[in-house]
Amino acid sequence: MHVLKLFSSLCLLALVTGCAIDVSPKAFIHQDKQPLQLDTSSLQKAIQRDEAQVSITTVQLTNAQGLELVGVAVSYPQAKANIVFFGGDGQTINKGSGLIHRLGQIPANILWVDYQGMGASSKADKLKVANLKSDALQVYDYAKQVFPQRLPTLVHGLSMGSLMATFIASERPVDAIVLDGALNDLPSVVTNMMPSWSRLFTTLDIHPDLANMSNVEAIKDYKGPVLFLVGENDRITPVAFVEQVYRATPSDNKALYVIPGQTHFHDMKQEATIQRYREFVETLK
């Protein structure tokens, strides 16, 4: 994971210098050097293996900055929901499009668009969190246009994507959200990723754009359905962090599922996780 590599280097620097660590959007959020060709080969292989009848459409959106955001919309037969997926830091369609097919087993229609500066999407000269949030709203609005409106539309945010999910829920009347490895707040997550020995002589100078990113705060007014997923062995957003967000939401329809034996990027590989997802979708009816 990009962030883990970053903080291993920073902590080594801190050991030598005892200096403060500057955590800016550019340092914390991965950006590829240039856009890559969209590759959905792992998705295609999974579909062929299961002999599934699936429709795959390449999505190209122009955002408010004039950047091209690239992704895929995948429609499954007899879908029971529409899922707008926002991945973790550095998680792109090229690296994990097979995840789409596992979500499709619910069954559900899936929209996944790479963040600007990641995967197949264009890169801005300067990365701003506000622009990522604006893009997220545009992607959600697009999903509402192209997917069947008779189905509930869920926003599924994994890791960093959980911050996008709660933001959208504060700006749009979403039918439900799924918070997967949810960050409680960014300063806590950053500190947690640092080795304990480095915390004694290291201070964090977190950019205001990042310091204010908190699911605990963002979800306080959300009363809609929410499913929390977290790996039992998640070291980036431990179960205790996710439980903080769970307790903060006033929703009457909320569920927390701790995935046995799994870490942060569990990729929905366990059938039991998919089944819990199905059960949650059923409650939306």
From TrEMBL:
InterPro entries for the chain: AB_hydrolase_fold, Hydrolase_4
UniProt keyword list: Hydrolase, Signal
> What are the residue boundaries of the Serine aminopeptidase S33 domain, all occurrences included?
78-201
Cite the SUPFAM superfamilies for this sequence: alpha/beta-Hydrolases (SSF53474)
State if Glycosyltransferase is listed as a keyword: no
What is the organism of origin for this protein? Alteromonas ponticola
The residues the entry assigns to the signal sequence are 1-20
Q: What is this protein called?
A: Alpha/beta hydrolase
Pfam families linked: Hydrolase_4
MF GO annotations? hydrolase activity
